[in-house]
Amino acid sequence: MQQADRRDFLKLAGMAGVTFTAGLFPGWQAAAQAAADFHFVQFSDTHWGYSGPANPDAEHTLEKAVATVNGLAKQPDFIVFTGDLTHTTDDGKERRARMKRFREIVGALSVKDVRFMPGEHDASLDKGEAFKEFFGATHYTFDHKGVHFIVLDNVSDPGAKLGDEQLAWLAADLKQRKTDDRIVVLTHRPLFDLKPDWDWTTADGAKAIELLMPYQNVVVFYGHIHQENHHMTGHIAHHAAKSLIFPLPAPGSQPKRAPLPYDAAMPGLGTRDIAVAAKVTWTELPVTKA
Amino acid sequence: MKRRVFTALLVGSAAGGTARLLAAETPNEIKVLAMKFDFTPETIKVKVGQPVTLVLTSMDRIHGFKMPEFGIRTDIIPDQETRVTLTPQKTGNFTFFCDIFCGDGHEDMSGTLVVEA
Predict the structure, then answer these.
(1) pLDDT at residue A289, as a whole number
(2) What are the chain A neighbours of B66 within 8 Å (beta carbons)?
(3) Residue in chain A nearest B98 by alpha carbon
(4) What are phi and psi of A281, to 5 degrees?
(5) How far is the first Cα of chain A from the last one, in angstroms, to the nearest whole number?
(6) What is the domain-level CATH number for residue B60?
(7) A256 — pLDDT class (breaks 50, 70, 90)
(8) Which member of A125, A159, A257 has the closest CB to residue B64?
(9) Band (B19; pLDDT cuts 50, 70, 90)
(10) Distance from CA of residue B17 to its chain's centroid?
(11) Is the Cβ–Cβ distance between A70 and A105 less than 8 Å?
(12) How far apart are CA B114 and CA B42, in angstroms?
């Protein structure tokens, strides 16, 4: 059984950055997975279309991050975007224009296997209608080198629910898995109650966690809170990613969840390069390679 | 006009709160308007131990009203009064907020219930 090794400082793919290791697949036998190692990159909360003092560089930050990921010495197998691709607008025409421009920018990624999921800014005002037009389904699964990925949509319902139908779909999918299968869940909002009075939760997320709990090797990567955060619900690890627009305060660290002041060095922004093996390790990547 | 009534009591004090309410103690009513992206009033002052009914009305679209520390959440639907009755059992400041995404500014749509001695 792999043990947590939180001080494993490595460099991945020639990119400077601190690498973290978590004992995320405790039930997985290392000998069985030697050929299955791979890595993928997580982008989150790009908020294309945002304009404001929290990021005066908003028109260029995403392009810079794309260039940084394209510069990785070892390109990822695929890339995921865990929601809030665009900043919300009441105007459906403008929403589609933002999604179109976003898609053009990320079309410059060298890696063409890109998986998208919505955030509330993309999908809550029209129940995911525009998102589906541009990016397809809002919840789905895929498999990669022996790892099962489950994408959950906890934003198309404006009340931040997965809903009974999606939960039934999740239960049916999990029934096809063995309890020691490696499972990675990708979603936008935290599935657990991170900070309920800041609405950093999923209304029925506990039901999803309950469904996942019998499975020994589950890890969740999500966004929404615009900062790193690491939390365990039993043996299931939940890891929040930085955003590419502006950082938000640590949970409860200030009265309101207002964006942190802009810093031109963008220390609170970036993407994440995730290596999957018996353990899962990741390197936080800056917006721009130094 | 339809009416929906919700009663909420602090965890651990439900029995005492209910007894007082059923003893014909009429809750004070406070009207609270919801409109993108504010609650009016934003700060609501109440007295500890005294029942209060928040009469919630939306001026534009559906909003949510959530106050986790009281276990309260409800939709606020336009042209419909939503009434939330509670009896706070401890002093302090308690956040309430809209939990139905309502646009660019939704994250700022919150207020504070101030419970005074």
Answers:
(1) 78
(2) 196, 199
(3) A199
(4) -120, 155
(5) 37
(6) 2.60.40.420
(7) confident
(8) A159
(9) very low
(10) 16
(11) no
(12) 10
Using DSSP's 3-state secondary structure scheme, residue A30 falls into: helix
Judge: A257–B101 Cβ closer than 8 Å, yes or no: no
Question: pLDDT value at position B3?
Answer: 40
Asked if A256's CB is within 8 angstroms of B101's CB, the reply is no
β-pair type (A280-285, A78-82): unpaired
Structural domains of chain A sorted by starting position, each given as residue range(s) with its CATH number in brackets: 19-285 (3.60.21.10)
Task: Say if CB A247 and CB A260 are below 8 A apart.
Answer: yes
Could you list the residue range(s) of the whole structural domain that residue B43 is in?
3-116
Q: Which residue do the tokens 């090794």 mark?
A: A5
Count of the separate structural domains present in chain B: 1
Name residue, tokens 């009663």: B7
- Token code pair at residue B15: 């029995």
What is the rounded (10 degree) CA torsion for B20, B25, B28, B29? Answer: 100
ipTM of the modeled complex: 0.85
Q: Which residue has the tokens 């319902």?
A: A157
Distance from CA of A25 to the nearest CA of B (A): 33
The β-bridge partners of A200 are: A195
Which pLDDT score is estimated for B18? 36
Q: At what angle do helices A205-212 and A164-175 cross, to 10 degrees?
A: 10
The answer, for B110 touching chain A at a CB cutoff of 8 Å, is yes
| Cis bond before residue B37 (omega within 30° of 0) | yes
Return phi, psi of residue A206, to 5°.
-60, -30
